[in-house]
Write a structure and sequence with these properties.
The chain has about 300 residues and is of the alpha+beta class. It is built from five helices and 14 strands. It has helices at about 1-35, 230-255, 270-280, 285-295, 300-305; strands at about 35-50, 60-75, 80-85, 90-100, 105-110, 115-120, 130-135, 140-145, 150, 155-165, 180-190, 190-205, 210-225, 260. It has an eleven-stranded antiparallel β-sheet with strand order 8-7-4-3-2-1-13-12-11-10-9. A three-stranded antiparallel β-sheet has the order 5-6-14. α2 (about 230-255) packs across α4 and α3 (about 270-280) runs antiparallel to α4 (about 285-295). It is globular and about 75 Å long.
Amino acid sequence: MRKLTLLGMLSMLVSVFGQTEKNKKQQDIEAIKDMCGCYEVTFKYTETFAPEIDYEKHLDYTSGALEWAELIEDEDNKLSIQHLLLVNNDRVIKHWRQDWEYENQDVFYYDKDNTWKFKSLPKESVKGQWTQKVFQVDDSPRYSGSATWIHADGKHYWENKTDSPLPRREYTKRKDYNVMLRGNRHEITESGWLHEQDNDKVIRENGQEDILLAQEKGYNVYTKVADEKCKPAKDWWANNMKFWSKVRNSWDDVYNRTGELTLLKSVDEQPLFMHFYELEKENAKRRDISSLLKKFITDKSVSDVEGK
């Protein structure tokens, strides 16, 4: 009888734990979905510290925009949000994309020189975690990291530190560093959500220790507004989502690898996103999209995936 009682208690504890885990995951999903909708966004960055006394601090960066965040995938273990910028209230620019994957083991980390390292994490290391994968305007990789969503004391946030390329606000203007170590914190607020950053600007060379050039603080504040204000962006996505679905599927073929992926910065004197303008106008077929992507993948990356 005592043995049966112990087994019953153990079964009950397992059931309670499983339900608690399920409830926690649902909280995570709700927090991620809270980042969808129409937002007035302010972007603010300021350099805060440099190890070298003669470093000349760069000017603060401030800008604003209206942004639509559309949930384009809604699965049990994956959510994908496409961001679209609205310029002058009617011009739409396809912006970044963030994918959230639950207990995901396949990640990519930025190294340097337009090279990413794809690897698999141990299953036990991602238990209960969500990987955020961030992609550029042309759906090429940017950065990813895995961490646990926290729901405590009325706060809901996720934070992670990971390497990335230079931000778009600096990559055409600065040559004094080549890697940004991003400290990302996404917090849901009463008025929307906050993307807070503590970033290290790093000089990285082969066979040498990283050198910290400067640090900066960033606040991207997303304030929720009526969805109607983002109607041009919603309409644009409705007209173009099939094409960009083909682009994502073509990239998935590229991402199905371990090892490195190195992309050329330009082909025919144009970066990748510029080539996509014409393909988008033509609603190009997937084979044409894949053909373009292959032009940007270096021989080293091709041999790596062929040898997998």
